[in-house]
Amino acid sequence: MATLNFALVNTTGSNNVYAYITGQAIDNNNALFLLQADGKTAYFPTSPSSTLTALSQDCAIPLGASGSTKTVTIPHIAGGRIWFVRDGKLTFYVNPGPALVEPSSSNPSDPNYNLYWDFCEFTWNSAQLYVNITDVDFVSLPIALALTNTSGVTQTVQGLPPGGLDTICTALRTQNSKDGAGWDKLIISKNGANLRAVSPNTGITLNNSLFKSYYDAYVDQVWSKYASDTLTVNTQAAAGDVTATVSNGKLNFSTGNISYNQPSTADIFSNSSGAFAVSGDSTKDAITARLAAAFNRSTLLTNTKQPNGEVVSNYYQNSVTNHYARICHATTINGRGYAFPYDDVGPSGGTDQSGSVFDGSPKLLTVTVGGLTNAVSENTVSETVPQSSVPPPVPKKPSRLAGLKNVWHKFSHS
């Protein structure tokens, strides 16, 4: 069975950090997979008779003292996650299926809610290893990636610097002082310290009155503009360029009888509800991804061609925009990292924003939790990854990443 090494590096300053690795074992009929505490033994939970059944094996992988590196070995995995927790241990459960009950950042009754934890996501199959950091649901612990292939070339995503969470929380408070929209409500604290900053979509889950009509005026302006102008969307797929104008209250496209009602703020932040719900029509779903990205970045009033013709410096310039995403990108060392589900949308040949690394011939993945303390090595490739080389967006579940074809098993404690 094929295996691959991951090097997990602890730079948190804490000597009490654990990792967990979960996913679906591709070479074992996609069975639910966790790695045991020794970092090399697979654990395949069986279907329990009741919900919220405790794991029968210890899957908390100790990383050792700050500055230490723990090397683990994994098989081919789909829908993988590498979880990190500082100063505690995470609690996972198994439901009938079996289905894994993951830690929740949006359920205050979850046993992990008041812990410092975070994760990155990956899929490793016979074609490639694909890994990304993510702020789609929340941001807490800094995570950085370095993927070295068999030719010795390394790709990196540097992620948040040490103390990045505090920087983000300060910026959210500053933004709220400007517009009073509720950005400070995205900050979750513990004993007066910042625990995490959640995304607007997660924030709405915690408080359904948050951002209730935040985008309404901007959406009205977009609809007014395209009542007389023509919007062109490059699907970056077989349909190529498609055009649309507004009539009878809908944004109507010239192909496939595709149209959109005005999206709500919740639709825009989730990328997957209401007007932006997954349709199963590949052309419409490609358009949806690009519209959702343009609304989050607030570029539809300044550019009639989406996503081509855009540059990163034009993103988030309107006063009504996804300021959480803006702040996350501004805080990461190189500006890369998923901040909303379709953050991997971008102009062909443009700069990738998604914070991913991928290679068909991987040798070692190094994941650093706590923030990078050293400069990038000389053999590291450029951080500017051409957008055309990034796996294209695909329809996905809410608050999950467009570049990964994952099925996540969740259970509500409420």
Short descriptors:
five-stranded mixed β-sheet, 414 residues, 2 domains, alpha+beta, Thaumatin, 24 strands, 28% strand, Metal Transport, Frataxin, Chain A
Walk me through the structure.
With about 425 residues, this protein is of the alpha+beta class. It has 2 domains: about 5-165 and about 325-390, Sandwich (Thaumatin); about 215-320, 2-Layer Sandwich (Metal Transport, Frataxin, Chain A), CATH 3.30.920.50. The protein is about 15% helix and about 30% strand. The chain has 6 helices and 24 strands. It has helices spanning about 165-180, 200-205, 215-225, 265-270, 280-295, 325-330; strands at about 5-10, 15-25, 30-35, 40-45, 55, 60, 70-75, 75-85, 95, 100, 115-125, 130-135, 140, 145-150, 155, 185-190, 195-200, 230-235, 240-245, 250-255, 260, 305, 355-360, 360-370. The strands form 5 sheets. Strands 2, 3, 4, 6, 8, 11, 12 and 23 form an 8-stranded antiparallel beta sheet that branches. Strand 2 (about 15-25) and strand 3 (about 30-35) form a beta hairpin. Helix 1 runs antiparallel to helix 6 (about 325-330). It is globular and about 65 Å long. About 45% of the residues are buried. Residues about 375-414 have low confidence and may be disordered. This is GH64 domain-containing protein. Pfam families: Glyco_hydro_64.
